[in-house]
Amino acid sequence: MEAILGEGVTLNGFICPGHVATITGSSIFNFIPEKYKIGCVITGFEPTDILQSVLMLIRQVNKKTPSVQIQYNRAVKADGNSVAQKYLSEVFEPCDAYWRGFGVIPLSGLDLRNDFSRYNAEKIIPVRSIHREDNELCICGEILRGLKTPAECPLFANICFPENPIGACMVSNEGSCNTWYKYRLDK
Ligand code: SF4
């Protein structure tokens, strides 16, 4: 989220992930309103959850009171699940991680600790690094960074569509291009 804000994208608020916050608690998002003055609402997954969260964000914007609110209160607490947090920190440690569109962001991922390296597929399975060329016209990276919309891609709905995805954003039904394709008005 900080990497996206670092791109200079103007955002009115964040709909934050409910499942993540079930473990971490809502407090890990406190830095967003404190540092960036942007509101956050931890959200569930049903259509009414999303609608209620948008309304909560609109009220934050209108009242100029950015904060972290929990819409998904049937699962999320401010402090999260302390038992799960304990096991997570026993098994994993922070590591640098690669993010599509952003490159490597320091300490943004989790890796198995040495005590659990016998389960680490990267260490126990001898696979040579696989390099895959992305289509140079695909703008997935800019879309993921909030700089462009799928409609600005020259391949969108042209040669790239769900049955023939050219980039990652079109592959899964959670991808930005896939969703844009499904709900576009000009079909
Ligand atoms: S996934 Fe397809 S439509 Fe989306 S940016 Fe890449 S090529 Fe363009």
Structure description:
It is a single chain. The chain is of the alpha/beta class and 187 residues long. It has three domains: 2-70, HypD, alpha/beta domain 1 (Rossmann fold, 3-Layer(aba) Sandwich), CATH 3.40.50; 89-124, no CATH class; 140-183, no CATH class. The protein is 35% helix and 17% strand. It contains nine helices and five strands. The strands form two sheets. It has a three-stranded parallel β-sheet with strand order 1-2-3. Strand 4 (92-99) and strand 5 (103-112) form a beta hairpin. The longest helix is centred in the first third of the chain and has 17 residues, at 47-63. The mean pLDDT is 93. Iron/sulfur cluster is lined by residues 135, 138-140, 143, 150, 153, 155-156, 160, 166-167, 169-170, 177. The site of iron/sulfur cluster has 15 residues, from helix 7 and helix 8.
In short:
With 187 residues, the protein is α/β, with parallel strands linked by helices. The chain has 9 helices and 5 strands, in the order H-E-H-H-E-H-E-H-E-E-H-H-H-H.
Keywords:
alpha/beta, Rossmann fold, binds iron/sulfur cluster, 187 residues, globular, 3 domains
The end-to-end distance, rounded to whole angstroms, is: 32 Å
Strand % is 15-25%
Report on the biggest sheet.
3 strands, parallel
Number of strands: 5
Coarse structural class: alpha/beta
Spell out the CATH superfamily of the largest domain: HypD, alpha/beta domain 1
In CATH terms, what is the fold-level topology of the largest domain? Answer: Rossmann fold
Q: Could you give the order of strands across the largest sheet?
A: 1-2-3
